[in-house]
Design brief:
Blueprint: E1 6-7, H1 50-63, H2 65-72, H3 82-94, H4 98-116, H5 121-136, E2 144-145, E3 151-156, H6 163-176, E4 181-185, H7 191-204, E5 207-209, H8 216-230, E6 234-238, H9 247-263, E7 270-276, H10 281-294, E8 298-302, H11 312-319, E9 324-328, E10 336-338, H12 341-349
Binding site for GTP: 157-164, 238-242, 302-305
Subcellular location: Cell membrane; Cytoplasm
Domain SRP54-type proteins GTP-binding: 323-336
Length: 350
């Protein structure tokens, strides 16, 4: 499993302990189990072999095929006229890019076609790819490990978004990056959520703080204290699924967030919202509501495979540009990967 987290570089003033060894290690053997990320590298890009990159791009294109088919086919043998722009507008709206992002892209595209004197469909398609990449680029942000000890993450989302599964996948990836992880089953209202998280914990040999019934804020507080006492790297706190319209329940999420802060100054360090990519424009409404309530630091967009609504990322970028840390296109661990704007657009428009 290749890693895709950016790690905080080891401080230079801390010397490495040199222990004489009777037999020198072979040159290919790493001196330490983890190599700090080089700050000059592009943020959040996985360190992987070309074959692995190709495999991910193949799966990403397949996952976004329903969205991309409605867009990319427009440019096959097309003439550069008002009909093409009208069809492109309809395709973007059907992909749930939203009115704001659609108007922005079409206006910018028409201006670029005129200024650069683009005469064929391939050139117009390339121009659209460039504009869409520039629009989505602010959503691309590194997820850095090692900034806090422990780093406390609060995970929220509506029921059915894939929140608990996402937590399990992220925990496994963090372990692959040498991080010690603690999970907290803060969804005390749904027994299935606790049981699901316990299964992930057993599968990955991760401790799960859980109560059969009780106050979610108390479970979260206990988890933070336990993570601090054990000297762990990451504490991930699951929370009960909430609809943005359930105002009294959203207030409870705010309470959980405040109590986490009492357990550790500055926590939670990451407040993530998990979104089902199939919900389209409703996903944008969720981002607005949860961001207003919790001040989100990042998004995880799941289930993009099989949806024709992948354009919602453009809507988020225009209306509420909360960073998209990860996107998911399947059930496997490797199907959850960092969001990279250029990769996403390439899979979308080809």
């Amino acid at each position: 499993m290749f890693s895709f987290f950016k790690k905080k570089p080891v401080a230079p003033e801390v010397p490495q302990v040199a222990t004489p060894a009777p037999v020198p290690a072979p040159p290919s053997t790493p001196a330490t189990p983890a190599i700090p990320a080089i700050p000059d590298l592009p943020a959040l890009l996985p360190i992987e072999e070309p074959a692995q990159k190709q495999s991910w791009m193949t799966r990403l294109k397949a996952g976004l095929s329903k969205t991309s088919n409605n867009l990319s086919l427009l440019f096959v043998g097309a003439k550069i006229d008002d009909d093409l722009y009208d069809e492109l507008e309809a395709a973007l709206l059907m992909a749930d890019a939203g009115v704001d992002a659609t108007d922005y892209l079409l206006t910018a595209l028409k201006r670029k076609v005129k200024e650069d004197k683009l005469l064929d469909a391939a050139a117009v398609k390339a121009a659209l790819k460039q504009l869409l990449t520039e629009l989505l680029l602010p959503l691309q942000k590194p997820f850095e490990l090692g900034r806090h000890q422990p780093m406390v993450m609060m995970i929220s989302g509506v029921n059915g978004a894939g929140k608990t599964t996402t937590i399990g996948k992220l925990a496994k990836h963090m372990q692959s990056n040498g991080q010690s992880v603690l999970l907290a089953a803060g969804d005390t209202f749904r027994a299935a959520a606790r049981e699901q998280l316990m299964v992930w914990g057993q599968r990955n040999n991760i401790t799960v703080i859980s109560q059969a019934s009780g106050d979610p804020a108390a479970v979260s507080f206990d988890a933070v204290q336990s993570g601090k006492a054990r000297g762990l790297d990451v504490v991930m706190i699951d929370t009960a699924g909430r609809l943005p319209t359930q105002l009294h329940l959203m207030e409870e999420l705010k309470k959980v967030q405040r109590v986490i802060g009492k357990g550790m100054d500055g926590a939670p360090h990451e407040t993530l919202l998990v979104i089902d990519g199939n919900t389209g424009q409703n996903a944008l409404a969720q981002v607005k509501a949860f961001d207003d309530a919790l001040k989100l630091t990042g998004l995880v967009i799941t289930k993009l495979d099989g949806t024709a609504k992948g354009g919602v990322l453009a809507a988020i970028a225009r209306v509420r540009p909360v960073p998209v840390y990860f996107i998911g296109i399947g059930e496997k661990i490797e199907d959850l990967q960092p969001f990279v704007a250029a990769e996403f657009v390439e899979a979308l428009l080809g």
